[in-house]
Predict the 3D structure of the following.
Amino acid sequence: MSGPPVIDPATYRHVLGHFLTGVTVITAIDPDTQAPTGLAASSFTSVSMDPPLVSFCAARTSTTWPRLRAAGHYCVNILGDGHAELSRRFASKQERKFDGLAWRSGASRAPVLEEAIAWIDCALHGELDAGDHVIALGRVLELGAREGASPLAYYRGGYGRLAP
């Protein structure tokens, strides 16, 4: 046998794009500047109930992930069906992502976006190597949700909403 098969990146992206995900914004206070920072992630999932752990993936090329890691705490803000533009903002390289956004500090001081339909405040529990990404594990410190809100869905490269 001659090693693992070579997977075409375009095919990989196309096929995995058929998996429906939610969209989150991961936020923290940059310890160097004391300013809020954040990135968009659709790779969020729950991991464990005991202890309460969640995870998300960040690209190794991300310039925001090192600031989130250095903070040691972050908040996972789950976006609602009207937040596609907010997701695009945090997925961009734009510097002033928090301009005009209402937020408050969670238990860890990480920004909880007022527009989020749910939020999970975490302490960084660990980081795992995952190829061109890292898997960040967070220990849940505090969480909350707005009842009756619908999530923002991401499917095949676009945003959508779930029918009730």
In short: Residues 44 and 56 are 4 Å apart (CA to CA). The domain at 24-145 is CATH 2.30.110.10 (Pnp Oxidase; Chain A). The chain has a mean pLDDT of 94. The chain has one domain: 24-145.
